[in-house]
Design brief:
- By secondary structure, the chain is α+β, with helices and mostly antiparallel strands.
- Helix content is 42%, strand content 11%.
- The protein is built from three helices and three strands, in the order E-H-H-E-E-H.
- Strands 1-3-2 form a three-stranded antiparallel β-sheet.
- It is globular and about 40 Å long.
- The termini are far apart.
- The relative contact order is 0.19.
Length: 71
């Protein structure tokens, strides 16, 4: 079964929408993800058959780990 957002249990690499990434990071708006991409803080990728950018799940999880280490 396929789950999205924080309910995603797929262990492999996956590309997230900005909305999914914001959910993982606990951010209310996907526009913060757009800002992170524009500022070069989070890499984004163009995938075939879509006109929207995506971010790697592993990059988002790395940001979460980085924040945990700061605390």
């Amino acid at each position: 079964k396929y789950w999205m957002g924080t309910r995603d249990i797929y262990a492999g690499e996956r590309y997230l929408t900005f909305s999914e990434a914001s959910e993982f990071l606990g951010i209310r708006s996907y526009s913060r993800i757009s800002e992170m991409v524009r500022n070069g803080f989070l890499p984004a990728f163009e995938l075939p058959d879509t006109d929207r950018l995506r971010v790697r799940k592993s990059d988002v999880l790395a940001l979460i780990q980085l924040e945990k280490q700061k605390q």
